Amino acid sequence: MSDVVRFLIRRLLLTIPVLLGVATLVFSLIHLVPGDPAQAMLGDGASPQDIAELRTNLGLDRPLPAQYASFLRAAIAGDLGTSFRTGQPVTRMIAERVPATAELALAAMTVAILLAIPLGIVAAVWKNTLADHAAMTFTLAGISIPNFWLGPLLAIVFAVELGWLPVSGRGTLAHLVLPAVSLGLALSAILARMTRASLLEELGELYVRAARARGASPAAAVLNHAMRNSLIPLVTIVALQFGAVLTGAVITETIFAWPGIGRLLIQSIGFRDYPMVQGCILLIAVTYVTVNLVTDILYGVLDPRIRLE
Amino acid sequence: MMRLGLAIVAIVVLSAVLAPWLLPWDPSVQDLPNRLQGPTWQHWFGLDELGRDILARVLLGARVSLLVGVVVVGVSSVAGLIIGAVSGYYGGRIDQVIGRIMDVLMAFPGMLLAIALVAVLGPSLTNVVLALAVIGWVGYARLVRGQVLRAREFEYVMAARALGAGTVRLLARHVMPTALPPVLVQATLGMAGAMLSEAALSFLGLGVQPPTPSWGTMINGGRVHLLDAPHLTIFPGLFLAVVVLGFNFLGDGLRDAIDPKK
Predict the structure, then answer these.
(1) What is the CA radius of gyration of chain B?
(2) Which residue is closest to A285 within chain B, CA to CA?
(3) Is the pLDDT higher at B98 or at B27?
């Protein structure tokens, strides 16, 4: 069996207990509700019959191991139960929202990469100059400014004062700009710092000096030689930050009334629609685990040293 | 940068601690006829939707935010230190079990698990602290585990073991001190993270509940008045961003200071 196949099998097998743990934790959520979850969902005015009926519908009247087994079986089959608020299947409601969240997450990551890489290159090439200090101060500010503050400020300037962009909703490319920028800025700050650090490391390597000695211009030495190698660790950082983008999307979607999973999650929390909350959390976590898995596999396939670790 | 960070943090901590004596305005007193009034010489940050002084509420909010940061970082770092040290020192099955638990907790992106926990436990300051500590210890434990794995092979640690030092003494006197500098850096950056997370949860309506002032709740409340009274949103957010920037400067500076390569 080749190294690559062994690595793939080992990595896939390692993911199974993580997914099982994630499902167990999500299953436990409804049992962490103080008191009776059915009572909490229906409110204080609910009749005992209604509470008993909801307990039966949610399966809460069955022994815990039986509930757990049913939850796992159904989750594997893609059945996450029925929304308490709308009566529709949770999976269907989430599936309707996936494109909006995927669109926002991809746009935010694009904004982040387009901002971060030039900024990181400038900071590394002109290390310890005013440009470097300015770039790094910008990145620290980017990390420190919360997106739930930046979002409304961007809306005041670009939607209300200048009237260039719509303030909320989804539909056209213009609708995507403010949410994507507000979500992508913090990520761009982290990526720019990583680009700088990674590029600085490569710029000190002999092969870059050799390229310069062979007559490559400073720009060619950076872009064609050092930058290529420094991009490898960035792939991992982008994947790791995908989780932050998904969490950030919960807030950004709430601010800009973006009809994605994050907004659905917050609305469901408000209505104590626990099956829907469990469904959204499970989907986001599984997506995150899958993205990390794919990144690890790609990284291992590209770099033989990772496979051997 | 570290000095600037230290100065920012010191000023905010002092202002928050001394707030009741510094301010002439009670943060709960309402001046309804002048509600939503912008900044004036009397009220530097203006008045909110109920005519309450925003500067007073921002400073009181700083107390809540700093309190959450200190408690979350304190609980998470102590728990992480103990669990990480046990995991790294003993290795074997204990390490594997702790490792799997950490893998599961790390499978939830960012503060999604905190959102989920607060959603089911109910919105309150205590539940916010609990939820953030539940996700917070993992980072410290991973860091400490790595340090302990390295430190237990040091010659002076092996010598102490050979001289008959017990496990607790070995860990406390010889192994753990090597892990403390990076933990200190992580704790400083963790303060920034905990304060941001608390504000985010409060912004979503899952954290501190009114009338207790929190920067997140204030920013959320100000959204309704973005057009007629943007100062409701601007000042609490500005304070939050500056404090988080201060802790980030401090954490970065500390990291550079303890980095042997520099």
Answers:
(1) 22
(2) B108
(3) B98
Q: What are phi and psi of A77, to 5 degrees?
A: -80, 0
Question: Bigger pLDDT: B256 or B94?
Answer: B94
For B53-92, the pLDDT digits (tens) are: 999 999 999 999 999 999 999 999 999 999 999 999 888 8
Which of the 8 DSSP states describes residue A82?
Answer: B
Query: Which pLDDT belongs to residue A150?
Result: 93
Dist. CA B144–CA B87, nearest whole Å: 9
Please name the residue ranges forming H helices in chain A: 3-29, 37-42, 48-58, 64-76, 90-125, 130-144, 147-154, 173-203, 206-213, 218-220, 227-255, 261-270, 274-302, 304-308
What does the mean pLDDT of chain B come to?
89
Q: What's the rounded Cα separation, in Å, for the pair A287 and A245?
A: 12
| Cβ B25 vs Cβ B53: under 8 Å | yes
- Structure tokens of B59? 């400073």
Nearest to A285 among B112, B200, B242 (CB): B112
- To which residue do tokens 């709308």 refer? A86
Residue with structure tokens 């209604």? Answer: A50
CB B46 within 8 A of CB B231: yes
Question: With an 8 Å Cβ cutoff, is B121 touching chain A?
Answer: yes
Residue A144 with chain B: CB contacts under 8 Å: 192, 241-242, 244-245, 248
Predicted pLDDT at B83: 94
Whether the pLDDT of residue B175 is over 90: the answer is no
Inter-residue contact B140 to B183 (CB < 8 Å): yes
**pLDDT value of position A308:** 59
Residue B98, classed as helix, strand or coil, is helix
Taking a C-beta distance cutoff of 8 angstroms, is the pair B232, B225 a contact? yes
User: Burial of B220 by CB count in 10 Å (0-12 exposed, 13-18 middle, 19+ buried)?
Assistant: buried
Place of tokens 């991992």: A236
CA dihedral A121, A124, A127, A129 (to 10 degrees): 20
Q: From chain A, pick out residues whose CB is under 8 angstroms from the CB of B206.
A: 269
Q: Tell me if B100 and A17 make a contact (CB, 8 A cut-off).
A: yes
Is residue B102 within 8 A of residue B188, CB to CB? The reply is: no
**Chain A to chain B, count of Cβ pairs less than 8 Å apart?**
134
The token duo for A239 is 């994947």
Chain A residue at shortest CA distance from B227? A156
Q: What is the pTM of this model?
A: 0.89
Grouped pLDDT means (10 residues each) for chain A, 309 residues: 80 90 92 85 84 86 91 92 89 94 94 92 90 89 90 89 88 92 91 89 85 84 81 79 86 93 93 92 91 82 65
Beta bridge pairs of residue B262 = none
- Distance, in Å, from the CA atom of A67 to the CA atom of A53, rounded to the nearest integer, reads 16
What are the tokens at A99? 């494109």
Query: What is the CA B125 to chain-centroid distance, rounded?
Result: 13
Interatomic CA distance for residues A243 and A281, integer angstroms = 12
User: Among positive and negative, which fits the CA dihedral A170, A173, A175, A180?
Assistant: positive
Which of A18, A33, A146 is nearest residue B107 as measured by Cβ atoms? A18
Burial of residue A16 (CB within 10 Å: 0-12, 13-18, 19+) is exposed
B75: Cα within 13 Å, side-chain hemisphere: 16
